[in-house]
Fold this protein.
Amino acid sequence: MKITIIGTGYVGLVTGACLAELGNDVFCLDVDQRKIDILNAGGIPIHEPGLEEVVRRNSAAGRLKFSTNVEASVAHGDIQFIAVGTPPDEDGSADLQYVLAAARNIGKYMTGFKVVVDKSTVPVGTADKVRTVIAQELSSRQQELPFSVVSNPEFLKEGAAVEDFMRPDRIVIGCDSTSEGERARDLMRKLYAPFNRNHERTYWMDVRSAEFTKYAANAMLATRISFMNELANLADHVGADIDAVRHGIGSDPRIGHSFLYAGCGYGGSCFPKDVQALERTAQEYSLNLQILQAVEAVNNQQKQVLGNKITQRFGKNLTGRHFAVWGLAFKPNTDDMRAAPSRVLLGELLRAGATVAVYDPVAIDEAKRVLELDFYDAPELLTAVRYANNPMDALDGADALAIVTEWKAFRSPDFDKVKSSLKQPVIFDGRNLYDPSVMREIGVEYYGIGRSV
Ligand code: NAD
Ligand code: UGA
């Protein structure tokens, strides 16, 4: 099938590459010339395990093309996926300017039937806005062409995006019941048929419910995390181990084991913005989503938990103190630093006068870029940051180690080396990687999250 992907970011590139892998003829559009140049030169602009091979294989086979040519991209696909960003506006609502710009271009250049798929995470009612914009463009060209707007939200996780896309636990598709909607449903069924071969994974619904499902899923996952973080903070006071509690409750199938890990807060491009956007949607209807407001507030506090533990141990003024930080990306296996808890910790340490040595397996370049933005008001503080070449190099002469991201490489370090490299053997573990009793045995002063047993 002929597919166009508008927006070649995390979701667009993975969607395009994976649909090409299934034999479709895919055209990926982006407004960012730099991204398109990297892709056309055989590289990929993001770190995502397994993606480069899929992109390379399908580009070589001629099934996957990258361009900034809007007219050619609209001409190409019978199905047009909109996969552009929906960042938070100043009031926290989803900024739809990129989605609507993409829709405008479709209306401007389409010459026949198109299925327009909202793949971006968009508030309930956005499909109607997309439909209106396309209709306006067509009417300004005095054209009456058939099209249908479908909602097909994406549930992939960064760091496992290719695997998640290729082996989805569900595919949610919202279509309307017009004749164009029926035509769209047939094309979408054909497109996703390879995923439904062994058992049906597609949940068909109306457009608004599909749009809502995406926010409900992210809000539920974020809620579990904030709930566990709140319990972890209590566990620290009462002397319980939140990790033991996690096993104890996760074994109940009604609760399940996933997304119960306490830590230094959730980051990333989606949970923080989607929780906020759902709250704003509710406010438009004069409703307060009290649970979600608490989820957001708990997470904002939780991102400060490592910094607070450090200042409790070393005092509020950290001048003359030096810390090692392992992990900068918002989670392992990505270089994405959007809303990463490491940014909050570095802000606290540097503004309190400390110097730091930081290490991340893939996010160093991205860290340099985002820290310039975070410290636009005090760029001189960035001279106190040293970018280390490996985890051990970061430890040299530090008063303590803080762990922010649970990269595999941090799970079983040589603790003798860790102890001898640090000025004093103190570890603040924001991802609960180590066993507190083992740390005690080997003489490490250990601060986990909710593990003061
Ligand atoms: P991204 O910022 O990585 O990519 C968006 C791309 O769209 C950028 O490359 C940008 O240059 C391009 N773009 C903007 N306007 C354009 C236009 N008019 N025409 C063509 N290209 C345009 O964003 P992302 O992380 O891929 O997220 C995209 C959407 O998918 C968001 O709504 C997000 O919430 C949702 N989502 C993201 C993930 C994830 O893991 N990142 C997972 C599920 C859903
Ligand atoms: C999340 C969802 O898991 C995806 O299903 C969804 O498609 C995506 O958002 C999206 O809409 O963009 P992602 O943000 O890539 O995916 O990564 P997650 O693995 O969900 O982690 C998000 C954050 O939560 C990370 O900072 C992680 O460290 C944190 N987390 C996760 C915890 O603190 N505890 C947990 O138990 C799980």
